[in-house]
Write a structure and sequence with these properties.
The complex is a heterodimer.
Chain A lengths: L8 H7 L3 H5 L3 H24 L1
Chain B lengths: L4 H17 L3 H11 L4 H25 L12 H25 L6 H25 L9 H16 L5 H11 L4 H28 L9 H21 L2 H24 L2
The chains are: A mainly alpha, B mainly alpha.
Chain lengths: 51, 263
């Protein structure tokens, strides 16, 4: 293991910014959130048939 | 399939706390569900399935919202850490499930008291650390991390729980940034829960009946929380998590101790 690790580097940089800047979400993150909801609904449908 | 609003809300609340502080879902929600009349064989496998999915989702969005950097090619330090802790946890959970369901019992009372006191102690030390130590807070201490991973695995392996608090506080003591520590715990706990599912299904084959009635409700609350919590971690300043995590660990330790003495 090194004497320095990069864990949390990005988070620390982000913490330097204002809360309003941290609140902004990038477009690809919104798409991934939408994808997560699709996965949620597919999982629930599979529960409906399996349970 | 039935969705129960109360269970969804409870799962959402405790998964939000778990995803943002790295601990507490099992410790806090399981006793509540037992109080509501559900049995361990309804609760435990449901938790394992739900925690596997929500753990990976939380880790994914922790990366997406830049709380942590998980990469596999090349392996980032955070990924190495999650895999390392996941390995110890997987070993521990397999041992604990087999011991628990195949009649080999350790004195429950002593083990649970020891883990509760350890978690309380870590919470107090974590809190004092903020007050006393400002320099070298993020200097890596890999040997300490190895010790805490072994300790957390050992505790879980002997049936005492407390994996989340020990591993989260252990990371913070070892120099991991608070916001990243919680995402790394989620990733490693997802691996551990996946191993737990395999072990449970193995038991299922030798006659232990598993009831997944609660799964849709727990999963719904947990999943929504696993999406919301990484965003909350991103937006709120690290200073808040620095205080919140040890205080919550202390609370969980006190709650666990009370549960033992006033069941």
């Amino acid at each position: 293991m090194p004497n320095y690790w990069e864990i949390g580097e990005e988070a620390r940089d982000l913490d330097e910014k204002t809360i309003f800047e941290r609140m902004k979400i990038e477009r690809h993150s919104i798409k991934r959130l939408a994808g997560a909801f699709v996965i949620y609904f597919l999982t629930m449908i599979s529960f409906y048939f399996l349970l | 399939m039935e969705l129960i609003l109360l269970i969804i809300l409870l799962a959402f609340l405790f998964e939000s706390m778990d995803s943002s502080s790295g601990m507490g879902f099992g410790t806090a929600l399981a006793p509540l569900l037992f109080l509501l009349g559900y049995s361990p064989l309804q609760v435990v496998p449901t938790f394992l399935i739900s925690e596997t999915i929500t753990g990976f989702v939380n880790a994914f969005f922790g990366h997406e919202f830049k709380n942590v950097n998980f990469s596999f090619r090349p392996l980032s330090d955070a990924t190495k850490l999650a895999l390392f802790m996941g390995f110890f946890g997987c070993l521990a959970i397999s041992i604990s499930i087999f011991l628990g369901y195949f009649a080999i019992k350790f004195p429950d009372y002593i083990i649970k008291t020891y883990v509760a006191i350890l978690v309380m102690f870590m919470g107090i030390v974590g809190f004092l650390r903020i007050k006393l130590k400002k320099r070298n807070a993020f200097k890596p201490r890999p040997k300490m991390l190895l010790a805490f991973s072994t300790l957390a695995g050992f505790n879980k392996g002997i049936g005492g729980g407390g994996y989340g608090p020990v591993i989260t506080m252990g990371q913070i003591f070892s120099g991991v940034y608070e916001k990243s520590a919680t995402a790394i715990v989620s990733f490693s706990e997802a691996m551990v829960s996946l191993m737990g599912i395999f072990t449970f299904f193995l038991i299922g084959y030798v006659g232990v009946e598993i009831d997944l009635f609660l799964l849709p409700s727990i999963f719904t609350g947990g999943f929504l929380a696993a999406l919301a919590a990484p965003y909350m971690v991103r937006v709120l300043p690290n200073k808040i998590w620095k205080y919140f995590i040890p205080i919550y660990a202390l609370g969980i330790g006190v709650f666990s101790l009370l549960k033992i003495f006033f069941p």
